[in-house]
Amino acid sequence: MHARLRILSNHINGRNPDSALRQQPKQTFTSGLTVVRRDQDKAFESVVVVGSGNFGTVIARQVANNITRINRVNEGINFDNTVHMLVHEEIVDGNKLTDIINKRHENVKYLPHTHLPHNIVAVPMDACERAVRAATMLIMITPHQFLHGILDT
Question: Which of 40, 26, 30, 33 lies closest to 7, judged by CA?
Answer without folding.
Answer: 33
